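Researcher: Here's a chain I'd like modeled. Treat it as a single chain, no partners, no ligands.
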Amino acid sequence: MTDLSTEALHRIAAALERMAPAPLNAPDFNSAGAFMWHADPDALVPVSHVSRVDLALLLGVDRARDTLLANTTQFAAGLPANNALLWGARGMGKSSLVKAIHADVVEAYPGLKIVELLREDLPSVGRLLGQLRGANERFILFCDDLSFSHDDAHYKSLKAILDGGIEGRPDNVVLYATSNRRHLMPRDMIENERSSSINPSEAVEEKVSLSDRFGLWLGFHPCAQDDYLAMIRGYCDAHGVDIDDETLRAEAIEWQATRGSRSGRVAWQYFTDLAGRKGVAVAM
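Model: Modeled as a single isolated chain. Structure tokens:
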């Protein structure tokens, strides 16, 4: 080999090294209790303050609360635990419950971290799991408002967490996802694929069975009026907002009537308005 060709190869090798992405630094998981995963470039970004509601203020979801709390405590203690899908009515506290339970359990198990993964970043989940695998901490991987459309292939990436492939899901990672849909895709799309498929039973099996891979299904349903009013009273008592029961009832019912729905989110929106009118600052 001539000196010229050797020199050219060295230049090519050097150029390739410059083009290659730098290896990620090992995350400092002691820097925070919560992290956001960002892809392209990959990074685990610490979250210094998590917006959440105290667990005691989440009313009307007792069964889901107790089940998810027990599962999370098992996981934090190093015991077997299931991935969980929280599905159902909008505004009934699905994501709030995940964040509140993490805050409750982390007091006894400070090594428990929560990492939020956006749906659009699902294709990068393998790289994220590589960052978490082998760490001393334990991680709730949180994917909020998860759903898939007819031509959406992101669900295939989700299987890396639920099934784990050859390597398997890391023992120190569990997935909690929220969705308005029990099967993570619209019912009309399921029916359309069944009706137009040569083999209807297999047409949507891959997508529909995705939800079956969650060990826990926790349903959330529209709340009763008594629960709705109790939520608001709980917020008022917790934040020092003074209002008599009769006025609160009349205003809160009128508020939900203008929204056309009754939920935990609507209860919080009314309370936010009330606290503002009363001149009370509310810290989340």
